Amino acid sequence: MHPRKIHDRLTDLLSRYPAVMLLGPRGVGKTTLARQFSDLYYDIEHPEDLIRLDIEWGPRMRGRELMVLDEIHTVPELFLRLLPMIDEQRSRNGRFLMTESMASPLLKSLEGRCVLCELPPFLIGEMPEDRWDDLWMTGGYPVPEEVSPSFPDRQRICLKGMSQRDLPNWGFPAPPRVTEQLFRMLAAAHGQIWNASEIGRSLGISYHTADTYT
Questions:
Q1: Distance between CA atoms of 183 and 176, rounded to whole angstroms?
Q2: How many domains does the chain divide into?
Q3: For 181-204, how does the pLDDT look when each residue is reduced to its tens digit (9 = 90+)?
Q4: Cα 104-165-61 angle, rounded to 5 deg
Q5: Which domain holds residue 173?
Q6: What is the reported pTM?
Q7: Cα–Cα dist 148/106, whole Å
Q8: CA–CA distance, 101 with 163 (Å, rounded to integer)
């Protein structure tokens, strides 16, 4: 595993804030990095881990160990549960390390209690020179070689996940099929003057709706 330059910054933030939100696109290595900081790990996307968190909630809130809450945005009400827990011990830092693919609107409820830390794909300085070609081919994403999809399969997988799961979770109103079409239309219109009427006509929606979606 290659060390990440952001590791030291994350350590510093955890020493100064009760909660830290590690932001980054799917597959960038958030989980791998977060698990370096604590063995007390909950994958909020998995029902079994969510049940375990509910069962262990009381003892864990009273405990001293850093909790890793991975992909917390999948259960937005967790933000509201964490708020009083943090406020009860405002001076206690390094309690929660959370991860998200995109900043949740509910994150504002933890303002002043939680700080953001963005994890980018691998930087060239984080990889040995003999892996630089891999860096360019994968866009810096740490995908294992044995399961690494070739371009453009990886991009398709990522965009499908955004259209079918991430964006709907954030309240984006378009159906996943329309969202995927919108992605393609925006890519085709890249570098051109924005024309909501043309985009809307291609998607079968009004130009007002096209403006709203973008």
A1: 11
A2: 2
A3: 898 888 888 888 999 998 988 888
A4: 45
A5: 145-213
A6: 0.70
A7: 33
A8: 13
